[in-house]
TrEMBL record:
Topology in the lipid bilayer: Multi-pass membrane protein
Protein name per UniProt: Dynamin-type G domain-containing protein
UniProt key word Transmembrane: yes
Keywords, ordered alphabetically: Coiled coil, GTP-binding, Hydrolase, Membrane, Mitochondrion, Mitochondrion outer membrane, Nucleotide-binding, Transmembrane, Transmembrane helix, Ubl conjugation
Keyword Ubl conjugation: yes
Record localization: Mitochondrion outer membrane
Domain of life (superkingdom): Eukaryota
Domain Dynamin-type G stretches: 76-324
Organism for this UniProt entry: Ridgeia piscesae
Length: 442
């Protein structure tokens, strides 16, 4: 995660890498799909030729077409999901907005308390909302339009509203990260169904805690449940609203140590998802409100109103950047294969698809090779048949030649015979005529 000074990712950031790898593997599967279709059409065309294509080979390529289609669909869905949990008003939506550098999610509104809000990128120029019970997307022209649209949709508890935001407006969305904002954990949810429906596919969990109070048992219980269902989930604790500490600078360090100790004990001793040393690097003291205000003004190039930021805000904004850097590093590490910590999520997510792609292409190559061999055999057979036919033709021609030479001889003999007979007859006739003339003269 190499963030540049202005907060945008450098080309080597793990997320960029994920995006690039995804595009590359997608392009490869587009090609594989094209070859599969060409192969299948070719096999169907030559299927009439007996002895070249076996029925099973045609069926296998048709199956592979479906398999490749399935992989392409899965690749389309493969995104990095970050889920945010915490009590209502701890600042979950504000944290997401700060990360997205834009006030996308409405904050402090009550309409969405019961449902999940998922922010994901779209290639479309305009934002829209998708709900689970309405097939039609709801158009959203602006952020205020989004709050209005959310207030008009009838929400089923525990449902997910998809906020599809133009990718060109936000670099994290461009890199296929999706953000899930959950209803407040304090609303006594049916945690099992929450976890089953919304958490099992999350790559990173962020617990947004309130630094003005302490970690609540409900928040802890939730993550205890999560860690029974997922092996070693990647959890961050954001002690948000740390700007409140500016009012009591003399207590700041002491309070911070207390929060830090409790957060580390929770991650390392209770959940046992990381050791104490690693746990410390998963706990941050931030002010999402200040970070958001600063970033929104940075984006629009307008000065941040001085009253919006409290004493020591630079440190808190810096801490927020540290959180993002660590978050990106974590997201790039396999969450599914924690035991091989060096393995990146890029590998984990695409490894299976790559293996399948290789298997399909090598299998189809074998099919095509055996078809090629069968057709080469067939060609040889045909050539041999041709050869035999040619031999027969040559023999017949030779016979004919011999025959015609014989006939010529015979005709010659006959002609000579006829000539001889005619000339004999003539000679005889002339002799007879000469005798007659002689007698007559006498
Ligand atoms: P959520 O219910 O957890 O999503 O909380 P929201 O993001 O909607 O925030 C609730 C209220 O807390 C809003 O009025 C925010 O402006 C405010 N808020 C969020 N983060 C901070 C923070 O870091 N400091 C302060 N002072 N207020 C914050």
């Amino acid at each position: 995660s190499r963030k540049l000074g202005n907060g945008r990712q450098s080309p080597t950031s793990p997320l960029k890498l994920f995006g690039l790898a995804k595009k590359r593997i997608n392009d490869i599967f587009v090609d594989i799909s094209k070859y599969m279709h060409e192969t299948n059409t070719f096999l169907v065309e030559i299927a009439q030729e007996e002895g070249i294509v076996e029925q099973a080979q045609g069926e296998q390529t048709a199956k592979y077409i479906e398999k490749v289609r399935g992989i392409q669909e899965m690749l389309g869905r493969d995104r990095m999901k970050v889920a945010f949990y915490g009590r209502t008003s701890n600042g979950k939506s504000t944290v997401i907005n700060a990360m997205l550098r834009s006030k996308i999610l409405p904050t402090g509104i009550g309409h969405t308390t019961n449902c999940f809000l998922q922010v994901e990128g779209t290639d479309s120029e305009e934002a829209y909302i998708l709900t689970e019970d309405q097939p039609q997307p709801l158009s959203v022209q602006s952020i205020s339009g989004l709050a209005h649209a959310l207030s008009t949709v009838r929400l089923k508890p525990d449902s997910t509203i998809h906020i599809c935001w133009p990718k060109n407006k936000c670099s994290l969305l461009k890199d296929d990260v999706i953000f899930l904002d959950s209803p407040g954990i304090d609303l006594s949810p049916d945690m099992d169904s929450w976890i089953d429906r919304h958490c099992l596919d999350a790559d990173v969990f962020v617990l947004v805690a309130n630094a003005e109070s302490t970690l609540m048992q409900t928040e802890k219980n939730f993550f205890h449940k999560v860690s029974t269902k997922l092996s070693k989930p990647n959890i961050f604790i954001l002690n948000n609203r740390w700007d409140a500490s500016a009012a009591e600078p003399e207590m700041q360090e002491e309070v911070k140590q207390q929060h830090l100790e409790r957060s580390v004990a929770f991650l390392a001793d209770e959940l046992k998802v990381v050791d104490r040393f690693e746990a410390e690097s998963h706990v941050f003291f931030v002010s999402a409100r200040e970070t958001l205000v600063t970033r929104v003004h940075q984006e629009t190039g307008t000065p941040t109103p001085s009253g919006a930021l409290l004493e020591g805000f630079q440190g808190r904004v810096f801490e927020f950047c540290n959180f993002e850097r660590k978050f990106e590093e974590c997201i790039s590490q396999s969450v599914y294969l924690q035991e091989c910590i060096s393995q990146s999520a890029v590998q984990t997510k695409f490894e299976q698809h790559t293996a399948n792609g290789k298997l399909i292409t090598s299998d189809v190559r074998m099919i095509m090779e055996s078809v090629f061999e069968a057709s080469a055999k067939r060609k040889k057979c045909c050539q041999q048949e041709n050869h035999e036919a040619q031999d027969k033709l040559d023999y017949t021609a030779k016979q004919l030649n011999l025959l015609s030479a014989e006939i010529k001889d015979k005709i010659k003999q006959m002609t000579e015979e006829v000539e001889r007979k005619v000339s004999n007859a003539f000679t005889e006739e002339i002799r007879r005529l000469a005798i007659l003339v002689d007698e007559f003269d006498r």
